[in-house]
Amino acid sequence: MTDETTDPPIEERGYIAGLTVVDIGDYRISRGMTRRPKSGCRHIRVVYDDKERRIWCSDCEHDVEPFDAFVTLAGFIDGVYKNLNKRAKALKEAEAFQVRSIAAQQIDKAWRKRSTVPGCPHCGQGLFPEDFKNGIKTTLGRDYAEAQRNRKKTT
Q1: What is the Cα Rg of the chain in Å?
Q2: How far apart are CA 142 and CA 120, in angstroms?
Q3: What is the per-residue pLDDT for 17?
Q4: Is the CB of residue 69 less than 8 Å from the CB of residue 55?
Q5: 3-class SS at 132?
Q6: Which residue of 6, 11, 85, 127 has the smallest Cβ count within 10 Å?
Q7: What φ, ψ does residue 59 adopt, rounded to 5°?
Q8: What is the pLDDT of residue 137?
Q9: How far apart are CA 17 and CA 112, in angstroms?
Q10: What string of DSSP letters covers 80-131?
Q11: How far apart are CA 92 and CA 84, in angstroms?
Q12: Selection from 7, 120, 138 nearest residue 62 by Cα
């Protein structure tokens, strides 16, 4: 609902390509460009009024088209959604790292005791620090190790 006295008219332009004028009986629809100067305001702080059914920007005090307000809102929600997904992914990675860190702390705590050593959770054999002092001689792929563990559970 804009005031027709203050809004400059739209000028018809001679476009080279695309639809320029459509005549439908008494109606004539033409493609044009406004003479209204382009505003630098992005209309981030919009206000709406139920009674006037009007949306305007509280920064520049111009009316905002409902479609433009919707696009701004959709863009904001999309940005928030992407930020939440990024934070959830970072949190998941931090939790995975924390599990490894907690496991290392638990093994170290068990090795500090002089009378006991931690046992392997699968075979029950003792794990001594001396077994790892020269490094880890054998490593398995995680997928392969999980498949082996699952096979032992089912048999």
Answers
A1: 34
A2: 17
A3: 60
A4: yes
A5: helix
A6: 6
A7: -80, -55
A8: 79
A9: 80
A10: HHHHHHHHHHHHHHHHHHHHHHHHHHHHHHHHHSSS---B-TTT--B--GGG
A11: 12
A12: 7
Tokens matching residue 100: 């490894």
Tokens linked to 78: 């999309």
Report how far apart, in Å, the C-alpha atoms of 149 and of each of 118, 125, 127, 131 are: 19, 16, 18, 22
pLDDT in the model for residue 89: 95
Question: From first to last of its 155 residues, what are the pLDDT tens digits of the chain?
Answer: 455 556 666 565 565 665 556 666 666 666 565 555 666 787 888 888 888 888 888 888 888 888 888 888 888 888 888 999 999 999 998 888 888 888 888 888 888 888 888 887 777 788 888 888 888 877 888 888 888 888 888 87
Q: Are 30 and 21 in contact (CB under 8 A)?
A: yes
Q: Which two tokens stand for residue 6?
A: 């203050």
Side chain identity, residue 101: S
